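Ligand: flavin-adenine dinucleotide. Inputs:
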Amino acid sequence: MALARAVETEVLVVGAGPAGSGAALSLARSGVQSLVIDRAHFPRDKVCGDGLPPRAVAALRRVGLEAALRERGYRPVEHCRIVGTGGGHLLTDLAPRDCFPGYSYVVPRRELDHVLVTAARAAGAEVWEGVQGLGLLDGDGAPVVEAVDGAGTTLHLRAQVVIVADGSRGSFSRRVLPKEHLQAGGVAIRLYMEGVHETGALSFFLDRRLLPGYGWVFPGGAAGLPANVGVGMEARALRAGKVGLRSLLRWFVGPGSLAWPYLSRARAVSEPAAFPLQFSYRRGLRRSGRLLFAGDAANLVSPLSGEGVAYALESGEEAARAAVGALRSGDMCRLAAYDRAVRRLLAADYLGAYLLRRALVHPTVNNAVVGLLRRDREMARGGVGILTNTVSPLHLLHPGVWVRMLSPHRVVSMLRNG
Ligand SMILES: Cc1cc2nc3c(=O)[nH]c(=O)nc-3n(C[C@H](O)[C@H](O)[C@H](O)COP(=O)(O)OP(=O)(O)OC[C@H]3O[C@@H](n4cnc5c(N)ncnc54)[C@H](O)[C@@H]3O)c2cc1C
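Predicted complex:
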């Protein structure tokens, strides 16, 4: 039997998507040795809507990578559209807030993830492509990950800390975590289309048939790129309705859907592709001993919008910060700082987003919300801020918001004009 090749590193990162390469970039810039393995070779595709909301843009800006997108020809998308179940349109600009810019980008993941991996490498991280993490070997202290490279060589990768960033239902997580942490709460499907009418906005469509999910049409983010069109849905609802996601997508790009005015002349230029979404924060695990889980692997996907790139970048950054703290002090208990950081960053917003989703799946509620928001520019920007994770849904608990939203003249105008 061939002997396994043994390798030692300070931090091993499994998966080089936004969470993993974001973590590796931060580690390298802090002077910590890291080895990243990914089973794919970059540039590689990843099924996604490709929308980078302002929160993701802010995270990329923090690590100096927004300029790399502009150099590649990507242009800001400054508007967002929500079409309620009854057909009411809300179109608003994205307001800058705190450290979040007032725009998004749409960048195919083939490109975005390559930019991140290249930056991590340039900063000093070692990245091994075509290497798959298989599981953990038994042992005390520093974890040892078993992996296999493209030539079939077995690797034993020993690290002081392992950051697991292998995505939704990642094949490494499936080996090391109990099943209950890995259930896909949702699933989404996308396809690229040319000839979409306009739009210059990230558009979300709350078609009755898609509730409790939604459909989207995102413009190509650079000249000549096709639009990204897709549908996301709760896994439970799909099972209960016994509908296939592909047939929902076919319906969504057809004449019966709210998106038809934008798609009537469009034609598909790719096959549809689907991927699971793990968005149950409660079920997700952020840390187990010296293993830190980041991004989709930690169920950090917005339960309202299904967006996860911003959370992947932020959690990767926080996991790296906790690893650096533990390694510098020699005290592995300091890895617990990661749980606290994620909770502080996301837990309350998650709960708010979850409750909001439960409310908006009712056509009457989402029609009323769209109707009220379109009458007040500031409120519209706030509502879209909640959808794109730059405004906490807990903001809705502020009585002033309701006083403004339900002021008598606004309600009367809504009842009169629909
Ligand atoms: C259809 C769809 C549309 C979406 N649209 C959006 C959107 O518009 N905006 C947004 O913000 N989010 C969107 N999301 C969510 C977003 O795609 C994820 O949240 C994001 O990719 C999470 O990044 P990550 O780094 O955690 O995982 P990933 O991007 O999935 O990266 C995981 C990496 O791990 C590697 N890997 C897996 N297993 C192993 C292994 N055993 N060993 C080594 N490597 C491994 C994979 O090759 C991959 O490179 C969408 C998701 C879907 C399914």
